[in-house]
Amino acid sequence: MYQGRTMFKIFRACKMRPTRMGFEPTRAEHNGLAVHRLNHSATSSCALPFRRLCTSVTFRLKMVDSQYYLPNDIGISALDCSEAFRLLSPQEKMYAHYLSRASWYGGLVVLLQTSPESANIFVLLQRIFRKQTPAQLEQVATAAGLSSEEYQAFLVYAAGLYANMGNYKSFGDTKFIPNLPKDKLKALVWASQAFQEQPAEMEALWDSCSCLLYSLENRQKQLGLGDKGITTYFSGNCCLEDAELAQKFLDSKKLSAYNTRLFKKEDGGKACYEVRLASAVQKDCAVDGECESCCGSFSFEDKEFTVKRGDYSRVMEKVCYYLEKARAYAANENQRKMLEEYTRSFTLGSIDAHKEGSRYWIKDKGPIVESYIGFIESYRDPFGSRGEFEGFVAVVNKAMSERFAKLVSSAEVLLPELPWPQEFEKDAFLKPDFTSLDVLTFAGSGIPAGINIPNYDDIRQTEGFKNVSLGNVLAVAYATQKEKLTFLEEGDKDLFIKWKGPSFEVQVGLHELLGHGSGKLFVQDDMGKFNFDQSKVINPETGEPVSSWYRGSETWDSKFSTIASSYEECRAECVGLYLCLNKQVLSIFGHEGQDADDVVYINWLSMVRAGLLGLEFYTPESKRWRQAHMQARFVILRVLLEAGEGLVGLEEVTGEDGKPDAQITLDRSKIPTVGKNAIHRFLCKLQVFKSTADVEGGRAFYDKYSTVSDTGAHNFLRLRETVLLRKEARKMFVQANTRISGDSVELVEYEGSAAGLIRSFTERFQDDAEQLESGLLELSKQDAPCWC
Questions:
Q1: Annotated binding site, which residues?
Q2: Which of 46, 228, 466, 636 would disulfide-bridge 50, Cβ 3.0–4.6 Å?
Q3: For residue 418, how many other CB atoms are within 10 A of its CB?
Q4: Which reaction equation describes what this protein catalyses (predicted)?
Q5: How far is 522 from 559, CA to CA, in rounded Å?
Q6: Binding residue positions for Zn(2+)
Q7: How high is the pLDDT of residue 290?
Q8: 539 near 688, Cβ under 8 Å?
Q9: CA dist., res. 673 & res. 668, Å (int)
Q10: Ramachandran sector of residue 433 (left: φ over 0; alpha: ψ -120 to 50; beta: rest)
Q11: Of 512, 616, 721, 773, catalytic
């Protein structure tokens, strides 16, 4: 990455040890002292002729290290849902309260799904802040020798751990560590009231996680499978071949991977696999409500597989308890049946029950309080099949929902405009609910702007789905300050700030409804029946009859595995770009004339800029993308650059600060012609590969545009360094709590700061804190040998 032997000699002169990242920081530099130490070495440790080059080294060290810290000035905003909550009836408030409790407890599963140390760090922080608020602890920190900046760095780290439900960023899967020296953090822990009251327990807790808390060994820098990174979806000795074999086994048993983890053991030199199902019940035999158990031991391809229940059992018990409480306040029979099936799913570890619950959820049209809960998105499973737990509770925003309802009504007119043949579209468009919601609770590793669920292909294709846009998230997540806008021409910045929000609203609506909601999968079921006419359907890319399709229990995720999430996000983003050119769509969202033209321009410009920003989420050493959406946006940037004719310009320049910079230009006059044609061709190919289950063709096609190299018209590896230099940390959100007071439910709100985010979490679990923390530590401890 850094160039040649001369630079290597300079590293040695500066007492750096080279690795593929350029160097490996010393322990002190891991502990937040890199900037001071390298500035010193650049001026005094190196001979004078090397001073300028060593300063460059210093600059690059800061740039690389910043990936693994959360800056003290990171944006933290409170999600406002007070007015929406106030308007709920007493019954609706109770319903929302108990669903929120189920979601928050279920969200703790993510700690155990993220890294071996996440749960222990969480408990360490909870014990510290349960005894002393951030304001009270500040005096202790000062007495322990921490500066105000170091204490703020500790608060930001704690807030980041809570917001991401682990010590890896939910958006990008990169590890983050405290931006203060390890000995300073240890001093603070030792000086805390929690330590004074229980020194042995707190020291043992520190010892269990402090090493990994600060470690930036290569494998621990990001999530991944095998030697590519850290994952707790698989035991530490699993590799891609194990994941592929396990998927085949699960398919053979018609078991979904969504709520599973895989653990590999050696028995007499023979590989044995344990598939764990997330469930409150730990018995593997058939229990009440089951005809037969899916658990047991099986031989498959000369390997032994055991399917067991009871993963995350203590947490799943709490989820089921609160879902039962919520059921008493359900508004209708669909909600009651939905919660009954969810409870059965989390009790028994049954995805089939969750599917049944999802069917009732789809039928529950236009509820005032909307929710969904379970093992949902597979972005963070390195193999792309296992779902991360999430649960949300939100209240309908009626005014904005009316616009989305109009978009739904127009869907059957808009779908034929998409660039693939009619045979590649679903036989009938199942009009979904599409609502704008103000989030009350979103538990998991992060909060999206919009959602299209359920993710079960068999339900989506024939029974329907729902779309939601999270209005109060959009209101604060994408607010931009002009001075922080990177890579745009000055003349575009004011327009970008004015129309970024409205254009993103249009993009989210199209992305979720007509992106994820469109397209047919060609399937041959277990009985040999096809859902398309083999003799008539022609592949538009080859001119030949369709020759491949999904068979039996194969799904999009199981078939396309590691690229499925990003590929699908790319397809949905392209649908948004393509259909936002439609005047009818723009009118639905209230945009006419010049305003409509500006919305289109900023939507496309945002996508091009996002493609460049996406380089932050690419790891050159492993040649791996760490974030599905950002990979998708980079792919779109490549497609639009390839279109040529001056549509998109991307130039490396020197910024006003004298450091590397870049500038993006987009010729708005060519969007309806050159731009639309490029997306038309690309989008059609994406859909054809997806419809026909052509994994080989689809992967080769998508990988081609995903490639990041230093050759060709643009040096994307060098541009990545510029993006890292000028990146802005992703915002974090503070969410309210609900609590029962007498016969009513109160909303408890917090300030939009690191301290406010911390307080929201310590107060969230205060009723049974010690029992809960003990349970998390036990779950973490029992799996600890599996990660070695």
A1: 511, 516, 569
A2: 46
A3: 22
A4: Release of an N-terminal dipeptide from a peptide comprising four or more residues, with broad specificity. Also acts on dipeptidyl 2-naphthylamides
A5: 13
A6: 511, 516, 569
A7: 58
A8: yes
A9: 10
A10: beta
A11: 512
